[in-house]
Amino acid sequence: MRSRKRFIVFTFMYTAIIIWMSFSIQMLFASRPGAKPWIMDVDETVAIISLILSAVISISLSVFYAWIITNYRRTEIATLKCIGYTNNNVRIIIVGELIWVTMFSFLIVFELLIHIVAFSGYFHYTADSIVDFSPIIRFPPLLITIGLFLIAQVGGILIAYRRVLRLRPIIALRIHK
Amino acid sequence: MKEIMIKCEGVHKEFRLRGNIIRALINVNLEIEAGEFIMIQGPTGCGKTTLLNVMSGLDLPDEGSVILDGEDIARANEDRLSNIRRQKIGFVFQDFNLVDNLTAIENVEALLWPTVLRTKEIEDRAIAALRAVDVLERKDHYPSDLSGGERQRVGMARAIIHQPRVLFADEPTGNLDPASGTNVLELLKKLNRDLGTTMIVVTHDSSLVKYGDRVVKMDRGRIVR
Q: How many CB pairs under 8 A join A and B?
């Protein structure tokens, strides 16, 4: 139950940062000369700072999540090692969880964007006007965010690799005594 | 002449604890035949769990050799030890050590997930293992919905799904009421008889030693009988 709560909390945090990062990239695109009109005017420096901040936070979050998984699931990991899982088998599970949270958060963001498009299309549409959906985040920044976010997971994956390697199976027998 | 499953020769093991050296195992020599049911008994802190850890490859001896099924596990690398554990060894833990968010059958199947076996075969084997320990009707329940005795049975099913040659149990009745504890030991005895698995059970409870074919008594890091 605790791991489910952890998953939900981190999924929402990831979702928030993905929106922030996509928004920053969208701001950066919109600040360029000759860019397509967007919902607001933005300064390039602000966009760059916002993007760097969101990237740093996403790396920190992935490292923190990897640390939490390997720390709170020590007995579970040690037990798996006891019953014959190799370090590689365990790493695949941990990395899989990190990637799963990332992809699940993207699905939420994608779903949100579809609703925003539908909502704005519904209210902006008039018979004599061309529908301008003007979604807050367009598709290319979202795609770039997926790439950047997956790269940001490398920090977490490295922490998970190191901690899994150091965890000895004997802990499964010792931990509750 | 019977096959030797485990042979410990001149095994020493020391620990450092707050600057003090604790000699957990002192010149331990032990031979265990295939199919034997061994009870390792002794007071708390006498080195019985350390001996189990060393025999199962969870810990390495400082000196001496441990031959398990013809292979010196004291000199095997980590990946080889993992393979040996997956192929030849089963573990039953005092705290059951089941994964909370997996059902009983998933906990049992988990041991075979990293193997090349097909999903259907893994499921069939898990069902057979759960049936052998008489807890099949609880296969879709989560550990939190099971009693202590049932959890330990699921733990035993996980320990036998890959048909190990040796099964190590560290105080398997430690967290159970006396009736469930007796049940678990009778089940271990039955598995030993039916499957021919070598059983090595650690206990501090002298009333349980009657289940073993042989009792290894330990005191202060040495085998005394």
A: 69
